[in-house]
Amino acid sequence: MNWLKSTLSAVVGTEEPIYGPEAIQSVAQQTETTPYTEVNKEILRWRAYSYTNVETQTFYIMADNGTVVFVQVIYSNIVGIHTTAQFNVKIFDLSSKGNNKWYSDPLSNFMFDENMTSFGADNLSLTLNEDGDSYTIKSTVNSGSLVDLKFSRTAPGFVVGKDGTSYFGTDPKNPWGSMRHAFWPRCSVEGSITTSDQTYDLAGRGVFIMALQGMKPHHAAARWNFINFQTPTYSAIMMEFTTPPSYGSTKVNVGGIVKDGEIIYAGATNTVAHTATGQDEGSDWPAPQAIKWEWTGKTSDSKELSAVVEGPLGPRLDRIDVMAEVPGFIKSIAGSVAGTRPYIFQYSPQEKLSLKLKIGDEEITEEGTMFSESTFIS
Question: Is the full-model pTM beyond 0.85?
Fold first, then answer.
């Protein structure tokens, strides 16, 4: 009966029943035997499943000149009957005037290469090299944002646990949904994006994330928190989602800290706290005003590790009303569920925050650049 209810809700968008926390097998369970696995080309394959799912490849850029950008490909399959792809480019105005540049375009004639590691469409190519350590992204999909970028991995990538995946369902051997994240936390970036009024030199540092939501997004998560923090020596990354009450409002947190050539720590024993909030008038969500991110665990050589980034977020870069921005096919997924009001709050504080890192008896503090998102869905 639970399987039938879940199948019906996946097809018609109805609210799910209460299965309880035992109906999610968090990736944290895998870390008991495998703290993390280094990313290889197999992990970077597009899955292109035939059932409802969303796959994304997102490239975050923190340029040496201060520009913050992300580019993204979204590949979606709705109930196995409708497949679509979208290319997004966002250039953030760090002056807090809100003049961000946002380009979102549907893709035509999209396809994968034979190995399912590269993606192409009319006027777009996203190519993984033979060694599996760099991507090139070239796009003339939108004449207002001409993209020519190269991301080269400078530290190993990772998935938490054995496969980076949390599974949903009352029968662990036959899950009906999944959530997976694979990270390249520290990359060098070269190239540019040319808009109608200027060319942005984007030489600097970047983060690449490949994600798979193997179920309807609002069934998998009610909240998200994400941080990308880059210092001269270290990269700290964390992704946390909280399930809806149907799965016990369970928190799943994956993250890690790396430096060039080395994963220092990766695991699931991390926490996020909104230490100050304010009710946002435009969305009525309790948007964060200050936040605290903590990583705790052991290094690969079994030293105790703790790290924290905390402080005020300052004026937000943007607040995205997802339902107003996304294509109609996603509106059809979420719009029929009462209480689903997805908003994304994006931040990059002008006041520099610091990564405070302790490894064994060694304590290190480095200022860095942060990009973070807090998302409220239902």
Answer: yes
